[in-house]
Design a protein that fits this description.
about 30% helix; about 210 residues; globular; alpha/beta; 6 helices; ten-stranded mixed β-sheet; 10 strands
Length: about 210
């Protein structure tokens, strides 16, 4: 049964973050707020938790997952980033963007696109997500909490519990955080290509 934890949206309680991290390291799937909408997250190295997320979302290994990072140095550890890409990332993070980049050798092959060897990466602009990442001390493997057949992502803690009570473990409920997903930009080919228009503005990439 999913545990709902009411966490302050701007000043998250440290004890709750410590508990959440302990659960994540022990195989839990968490629902957490971001600057776009709620996301499902699990430990990067946990194959079973990853399989559960894919089952919940009904996605296969060709669907790009997102590695949620604290800062640019973490992104550089897990993806190949050239100078042009780095400048774009620096100008637009933290923010409501997911960037598709070529994964590095630090990433398990199972989390990357099987043919392209790419993965989504982002730095969220939300106090709870950033505080959780800081406590975890490493990136979190995530995807949007958008269930099959729904028109929009789930965005209320009670609703997430009602729909996923027996499928996830923790819900960090920081209140409504919106239903508009991130803007997804593919940088893996060397030029910015729009994959999905969302909350993040397109102007920084010349894609308006």
């Amino acid at each position: 049964m999913a545990r709902v934890v009411n966490i302050h949206p701007e000043n998250p309680q440290p004890r709750l973050l410590v508990q959440a991290v302990e659960f994540i390291r022990n195989g839990a799937i968490v629902a957490l707020p971001t600057d776009s909408c709620y996301a499902l997250g699990c430990h990067l190295g946990d194959k079973d938790a990853l399989d559960r997320i894919r089952l919940i979302r009904q996605i296969d290994d060709r669907h790009h997952l997102t590695l949620m990072c604290r800062d640019l140095s973490e992104i550089a550890n897990y993806a190949r980033v050239d100078n042009v890409q780095y400048r774009l990332l620096k100008a637009t993070t933290p923010g409501s963007y997911v960037f598709i980049l070529e994964g590095s050798k630090e990433l398990p092959r199972r989390v990357m696109h099987p043919k392209r060897k790419t993965i989504g990466l982002r730095i969220p602009d939300h106090p709870v997500a950033l505080a959780l990442l800081a406590e975890l001390g490493e990136p979190l493997l995530t995807c949007t909490l958008h269930l099959p057949g729904d028109e929009a992502p789930l965005t209320e803690g009670w609703e997430i519990q009602d729909r996923l009570e027996d499928q996830i473990d923790w819900i960090l409920d920081a209140g409504h955080c919106g239903t508009e997903p991130t803007t997804v930009i593919d940088l893996s080919s060397g030029t910015a290509e729009l994959v999905r228009a969302g909350r993040g503005p397109l102007a920084p990439f010349g894609l308006e």
